[in-house]
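Could you join me in thinking about how sequence relates to backbone shape in a protein? We need material for that, and I hope you will provide a protein of your own picking. Once you have written the record down, we can walk along the chain together:

…
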Amino acid sequence: MTECLRARRKAEKDMELMARLNEAYRSISVIDVRTEQMHLYRNLTLPDSMTWLVEDAVYEENLEHFAREFLAREDVDAFLEKTCLLTVRKELKHKKAYSVFCLIRPDRQAEAGLKYEKFSFSFSGKDNQTVVLATRDITEMVEWGQSML
């Protein structure tokens, strides 16, 4: 009973956090650091054919699949290094948020519906065992010279 109550409170906290996130985010996921599972809460980023990958997937496998499908071959390794859970946790120890930017390869831009995407990471809660990953389209900002890259 106590475990159920604890799980319910945690789910309610996660939902509050999701509700507070800006509507500009195209995808919101929660990553359990202990299990490395990625749970999708909202997805407007990936094509429907890829949504099933994110629902309860292993975080690094999912990001690797995304990188190989949507990023230029020469950018894949750098993206995966910057988004690996070890790097994310290390960066979040020193900052409230950590961001990684990527360029979608030209032949996949229409399918993905964007050209540049920002991956933002932050801890959820005080135990640092849950990471929120929110992605957003920054194409307009980059193309209008307001690049955050």
The longest strand covers residues 25-32. Strands lie at 25-32, 37-43, 56-58, 98-103, 116-123, 130-137. The chain has seven helices and six strands. The mean pLDDT is 79.
